[in-house]
Design a protein that fits this description.
Helix content of chain A: 55-70%
Oligomer: heterodimer
Largest sheet of chain A: 3 strands, antiparallel
Number of domains of chain A: 2
CATH superfamily of the largest domain in chain B: Periplasmic binding protein-like II
Order of helices and strands of chain A: HHEHHHHHEHHEHHHHHHHHHH
Structural class of chain A: mainly alpha
CATH topology of the largest domain in chain A: MetI-like fold
Low-confidence stretches of chain B: 19-26
Shape of chain B: globular
CATH superfamily of the largest domain in chain A: MetI-like
Number of helices of chain B: 17
Strand content of chain B: 15-25%
Radius of gyration of chain A: 33 Å
CATH class of the largest domain in chain B: Alpha Beta
Chain lengths: ~450, ~350
Amino acid sequence: MTKPHNSSDQPSKAPAEKALSKQAELVQKSLAKRYAAEKRFKFFGVASIGFGITALLVLFIEIFGGGLGGFRQTQIQLTVTLDQDALEIYDATNADQIMAGDYTRVIRNGLKERFPDVKGRKDKRDLYGIISIGSTFDLRDQLKANPELLGQTLTLWMLADDDVDTYYKSLSGTPYAERMTEKEQAWVQSFIDKGEIKKVFNTRFFTDGDSSEPEMAGIRGAVIGSLFTLLVTLLLSFPVGVAAAIYLEEYAPKNRLTDFVEVNINNLAAVPSIIFGLLGLAIFINMFDMPRSIPLVGGMVLTLMTLPTIIISSRAAIKAVPPSIREAALGIGASKMQMILHHVLPLAMPGMLTGTIIGMAQALGETAPLLMIGMVAFIMDVPGAVTDPATVMPVQIFLWSDSPERAFVEKTSAAIMVLLVFLMVMNALAVLLRKKLERRW
Amino acid sequence: MKKPLLKKMLTAAACVAGIALAPQALANRDHIMVVGSSTVFPFSKVVAERFGRKTNFKAPKIEPTGTGGGFKEFCKGVGVSYPDISNASRRIKQSEFDDCQKNGVKDIVEVLIGYDGIVLANSIKAKPISLELKDVFLGLAKLVPNPDGTETLVENPYKTWKDVNPTLPATKIEVLGPPPTSGTRDAFVELAMEGGCKTFSWIKAIKKQDKKKFKALCHGIREDGAYVEAGENDNLIVRKLSENPRALGIFGFSFLDQNADKVHAAKIAGFEPTFESISDGDYVVSRPLYFYVKKEHAKVIPGIKEFLAEFTHDRAWGDEGYLTEKGLIPLSEEERKTVGSNVKNLAPLSL
């Protein structure tokens, strides 16, 4: 670097050279500082990303570590006799008799036979408690489906109670035995010794609605509720949002009124979601007398919330379509409507869809406005229509996290995982759509 | 590109129209609608579930709105869009009852279902402590009687439990509890704080002269950081306690029951909170739990009578019923008999 400055055989250039070298010296001096600054600058960027990733990792480890157990279920093998007298069912094709049967007694008899030494009221009660109440309903459904089973002796895998479930799962680490008496632990040990207890994949978690018993609780009701709510939101907010964006971009004159509308849309996008919940409560429920806790109202409230997002992103997408395309369309004789529908809209669609999906993902994770319209509730039945009472996934997570039963902790984490998967799929869809449909000029 | 887009828009419009018409189909409700206390919520939930699975009726929908919020909804009127049942972690207030009457909700059936204990607990890493009601009051009140013995009030000067009562450990006073919107907080303040407050005879005397002043005095909780409002989520309080062994937490008995490996309860007035001590009344910080039913609705909405029958059956609320497994402290045999017959006849409440 210093070589050119050393060429002193041209004295006429010497003063300039000198000045230059002085400058170069200055540069030289500050160079180290500038490199250091550059390094620091880069480091801040890396550190920020590192911080983000660490936070994400901690979240994932926390949730996945705690929640994987939620996808496993403990079952106990038991031999039961579907005795007519015990069940008080004499005709297994009679629906009323099947409904009213005393399945609890059958299971209790089975447990008594398995542990004939258990005497005393309290011990017996504890013993009966190791099989979940859900098993009685399973037994009923089985008998209903196969009436010929009446009177037979069956060996079945039955759902274990949540305390047994938690205890059995914790045996690989530090056992959680606070809610298990020594006798109960001994019974579990006896099942283990005979290979009559196992962990299976928890299909119930995906096929059932909410339950007050952790071992029977499922996410299905909330997933369906979320889907219904999102469907309503999508059907309402997408057409309205796109229409508003088209009008504002293509037709609206530039005046004070449209400026005012624009400012307000941007403001609405920043309004806390709970406000929309209050609005929904006041308008849909109190004024129009619509029922509480239904996905229809939930979807309408979330529409109010996502509309600004969709309008803003749709306008940006329309703006990004080059004017030359519009002019070309108009030039060959298209009407304005034809120009918009045939040319602008298809080209702007990827951007609009991306914005919509991101708005939907936001709506999927929303809890606060739904709180106001009563979608925070215990609903056991899986909803079958947008007018059936329902909850949504984030609300279900909230409700489970608030439950006293220990076994709900892992269910909560498991539900969070399901929600995360949903969000990832939606965001991946947005990226995919953009990649697939996007055109470059 | 034109056709599919237009088609899409048309289908969307048709769907929207279909959705908008749907509410008409809701004129008849086929499920029971329950609102109210989040303390009664877990118990209501279990009964609702068993009822829903055992019968052909749909399982009731239960919304934890809090006791006050529940009555507000409940008393709005009679008709399918209003709740049938309201859960409560205290008795209905005169003002709420009047509100109900005013809106045409004339006949209300009161059902006392059992008791709930409120516990003061700390992490098992710390030593369990034993408190008198007076200690609780002095430790947590905003204004306390002057320590010099005169009948005046001063801002709470106590920093550690030892300052409050020399027999207690010298740990800093730090209590995690629910915010004022919570029924648990109401009950705690009424039972524990007021109980401790009354031990000062000159404060007790104020009650006769000026009820409001007495209430403000005994129910005021200090705001200098010793009492930390930890939200309505009792699980969160339990978790915070296990991270901070010096702190005490206030929450419902059922959470203590489920988290015995993390926290243990303080003795209050000499008694540990257990099923027996709460139902005998020895453990004083306990409250009754209720639910209220609209008699008019019992005739119209399918399943209400059957739901009531399930709730007041011995297999549910009895000494060994499934509700006790969830932490409900059962009524005595006699109480159950009286309440049970009231429910059977749908005898309306009069205040």
